[in-house]
Design a protein that fits this description.
By secondary structure, the chain is mainly β. It contains no helices and eleven strands. The strands form two sheets. Strands 3-5-6-7-8-9-10-11 form an eight-stranded antiparallel beta barrel. It has a two-stranded antiparallel sheet with strand order 1-2.
Length: about 130
């Protein structure tokens, strides 16, 4: 019997019904609901709700559920996508580590890579009411 346990997971799904397009002072408005999944060493974890919200003038990305979470500040790039500076953590307190990387547009969403980890986060857009409003 082999038991596999991992705390890190995240993926990003592309937009379906809503595509953040509004322009704000710092560039495109990334605010919205997303589905995120993490691809780690070839294993893709299930999709979980994620959100990007503008808080105190800055965009914040948070993976809202699952055993592996990410949260941090995102800044739109001048050309496309956005940078990420934050952390990956387990909600039960098992582990935490800094993450820095970038998300590039892909069909239906974004794909994120980080310099500290080989994992990939896939984000796809979700409808505005996907998580109950």
């Amino acid at each position: 019997m082999i038991a596999i346990s991992a705390c890190w997971t995240a993926a990003v799904p592309p937009p379906t019904a809503q595509t953040p397009q509004a322009i704000v002072d710092s560039g495109p408005d990334l605010s919205g609901s997303y589905w995120c999944s993490i691809d780690e060493d070839g294993y893709e974890y299930p999709k979980y709700p994620c959100v990007i919200k503008k808080v105190d003038g800055e965009f914040v990305l948070a993976k809202l559920s699952g055993s592996q979470r990410i949260r941090g500040l995102v800044k739109p790039n001048a050309s496309d996508g956005f940078s990420f500076s934050g952390e990956m953590f387990c909600p039960d307190g098992d582990g935490q580590q800094e993450l820095h990387g970038s998300f590039k547009p892909v069909r239906g969403g974004f794909r994120g890579k980080f310099r500290e980890e080989s994992l990939i986060v896939h984000m796809t857009f979700a409808t505005a009411s996907a998580f109950g409003g």
